[in-house]
Amino acid sequence: MSNFVIHREHGISKAQAFEITEDWIVSAEKDYKMHCDVLRSDEQIRVNFSRAGVTGTLTVDDKVFEMQAKLGFLFKSFLPLIEKTVNQNLDNALQAVKDR
């Protein structure tokens, strides 16, 4: 198994962070065929996600986006690309919110 963690302070409102998270859930389920169990509270959204070869959590609150993921053997060689893509997608989502 290969693991990665992305921990990013976002600097946007909690409502905006939650909006990005909801969009991510839709994309993860539709585009990547992830199964997402979502736990929502006033303080945070926690998403447990999985599909063949990938499991993890995304936790978002008023200050931080944190993703922890475990990639199975078949995805191990793609770890740098997956980390880069997740970071770029988060950068793009944050910039889009800030540009509004």
From TrEMBL:
Q: Which InterPro entries has this protein been placed in?
A: PHA_gran_rgn
Q: Which domain of life is it from?
A: Bacteria
Record-linked Pfam families: PHA_gran_rgn
Name under which the protein is recorded: Polyhydroxyalkanoic acid system protein
Q: What is the lineage of its organism?
A: Bacteria, Pseudomonadati, Pseudomonadota, Alphaproteobacteria, Hyphomicrobiales
